[in-house]
Amino acid sequence: MPNTEQPAQVSIRRTYPVAPEKVWRAWTDPQALSQWFGPGQASLTKADIDLREGGQYHLAFAGPDGGLNQMTGVYQEVKPYTRLVFTWAWHSTPERVSRISIELTPVAEGTELSFVHDRFFDEQARINHERGWALFFSSLDRLLTGGSL
Predict the structure, then answer these.
(1) Pfam families from the xrefs (predicted)?
(2) Domains by residue range for the chain, with CATH
(3) Which of 60, 61, 97, 124 could disulfide-pair with 38, CB 3.0 to 4.6 Å?
(4) Who contacts 58 (Cβ-Cβ below 8 Å, separation ≥6)?
């Protein structure tokens, strides 16, 4: 019998000392995204966002090697300041669609963010995304704890 088990997910939890609206904006506003989205220094070069259920997005950022990385997806759930779910596919492999779910919960310290990236094509894709998200979240952490958003 073939193994049809999905590869594990990438799961990240953070608590930020800001209101949910600011964390939401970091993920949904092109200007805010440009301040953190990319490996290392933010390198977002394009952010077309149609923020509604069924709406699409197209993001592009410069990679460490200078190459352009592009991804697209469709927003599946848009619940302002609380939940955002969207598909994720690299321009180079559009058939490999994964999913990202973001939950924002107000807490005494500010906002708890729960990030889950799942439905990967294979385990190597999960490992690669885990490595990439660690870099991206370092930039997001600096932005949201530095109070410049």
Answers:
(1) AHSA1
(2) 10-144 (3.30.530.20)
(3) 61
(4) 46, 47, 48, 70, 71, 72
